Amino acid sequence: MTSNTIDAKMLSKMFLAGAKNLESKKEWINELNVFPVPDGDTGTNMTMTIMSAAREVSALGENADMKALCKAVSGGSLRGARGNSGVILSQLLRGFTKSISGKEQLTIPDLSDAFDKAVETAYKAVMKPKEGTILTVAKGGAEKARELIKEGMEDMGEFLAQVIEHARYVLSQTPELLPVLKQAGVVDSGGQGLVEVLSGAYDAFMGKEIDYTISAAAQESPSTGRSSGYQAQAEAEIRFGYCTEFIILLSKTFNIKHEMDFKAYLESIGDSIVCVADEDVVKVHVHTNDPGLAIQKALKYGQLSNLKIDNMRLEHQEKLFKMSGKETEGSPVQTSVSAPVQAPVQPPKPVGFLAVSVGDGVNEIFKSLGVDHIIEGGQTMNPSTADILDAVDQVNAETIFILPNNKNIILAANQAAELMTDKNLLVIPTKTIPQGITAVINYVPEMSVEDNEVTMMQEIGNVKTGQVTYAVRDTMIDDKEIKQGDFMGIGDGGILSVGQDMLQVTKDMVKAMADASSELISVYYGSEVQEEAAAQLGRELEEAYPNCDIEMQYGGQPIYYYIISVE
User: Fold this and answer.
1) CA-CA distance, 311 to 87, in Å (whole number)?
2) Degrees to nearest 5, angle at CA 239 with 238 and 245
3) Which of 156, 286, 293, 352 would bridge with 395, disulfide CB 3.0–4.6 Å?
């Protein structure tokens, strides 16, 4: 028998069940992406976002109150947010938890208010909200909740069922709002992901048998407090030798930004991270080769309690001795803390650059142009907000320009900029690698930060980009029939060319981008393209566009055979 209210224990189960249900459907959701590209990743991005929060919720245990639960959900999803769909999901969760954090029992009106706050927060996070997406599905659910309250709905189970049923209906209508969905014959993938989260949560509320285990290296075992992956790690080569645990008794402010920074630091020196803030304490667990570094960082926020350091390599050796019958007397497990090595502090330079990139050739191009740090990722793996903040820490500069170089990373970069307190993080909304390269080239050290920002924004608008890859399924987009295995030339606004001959598809794509004012065509060929094939393309482009400079460079990017810009 279900209750008509939801307490923190039930909400925790509902959230974990929703996360698990999304995780189980992620590949199917990936396949709903409109463009049938091999790196369609909506399901993956949403799953990695919500599982980041699920690990923190799981670490809290069953007795957490509503405030601690809400903080884990909001902070974990914010840190783990990847891609546009992941960032929007994190904002939905952020708004929802902000509305309910101070309550002990959630009623139907409480949930309706929280749904409204979730939608409001998510819409604000997107510069130009587009209907027919996850936002529309969320808004539809919130509107249904308000309607049910007006009708006098008092049964929580029925309330949840009808809200989800309506959200699913709104999802089915997304192709009517976005013609590109209708032509491709799919519903919005982000909206589908949200419906799967809600459906999993409903199953938990109704008492369906669910495995709530969150399988991750950072999940703690109730019996030992160590990572649940500890045994497996002990049986393999141990990368980080000291299992380090402690509690910080906070004496300074420790907000979500501090928590993200501290966790990012722990990830830079080890693995099996647990960092859960609750009121005036922070529980910490990390496997590292230098516990002193973790301790020194923690002492900046307060005093330490319950400090425990185990040498896992010696423990493992002792276990092997016992198993082999070779244990010797007087060989106790030793515990030690190595003294942290202080690097000389260098004054920050005025301006630095971060770029998201993938491919050894493209990475080298960015580095040669003065980019300080490369964030690995892009089309094949969108970095999270936490990844970006961690990279910011690697650049010793007062102002840092970040080049996302992918439209699906801009929101995460903006979210990182909002969380930044000690550095000025400026996002240049580059949507492609060539736009990023153009932005760096047009930076002038003698100009002010503000003038450089304006110049770079103007210059990236002059860059047209096309990318050649292959189709992973049959579909219809932009009135072009696409068959699985076809090569596709994808431009800034959609599909430019399709066919079974890569060279011809590439030339047709360039033809669709070039015009009489074009002066430069830059070609970055990928890891799967032979140098001879790239050279042939270069010769044919030179013949077809005698008034343009043709630049051929090895990019080394995966999946995309060619990335080509026209300026």
Assistant:
1) 38
2) 85
3) 352
Instruction: Inform me whether the pLDDT recorded for 441 exceeds 60.
Output: yes
Nearest to 20 by CA among 166, 204, 167: 204
Distance between CA atoms of residues 70 and 118, nearest Å:
13
Pure H helices in 126-255: 134-150, 156-172, 174-177, 179-184, 189-205, 230-235
What residues have CB less than 8 Å from 86, skipping those under 6 apart?
A: 45, 46, 48, 49, 80, 382, 384, 412
Nearest to 208 by CA among 422, 459, 20, 410: 20
| CB contact at 8 A, 464 and 455 | no
pLDDT in tens, 465-496: 999 999 988 888 878 889 999 999 999 988 99
Q: Which residue has the tokens 């049923």?
A: 165
* Confidence (pTM): 0.72
> Would you say the C-alpha torsion 129, 80, 120, 105 has a positive or negative sign?
positive
Task: Report yes or no: 50 and 77 within 8 Å, Cβ to Cβ.
Answer: yes
Neighbours of 212 (CB within 10 A): 16
What is the torsional sign of CA 213, 216, 217, 218?
Answer: negative
Residue 181 phi, psi dihedral angles, 5° rounding: -70, -40
| Cβ-contact 40, 30 below 8 angstroms | yes
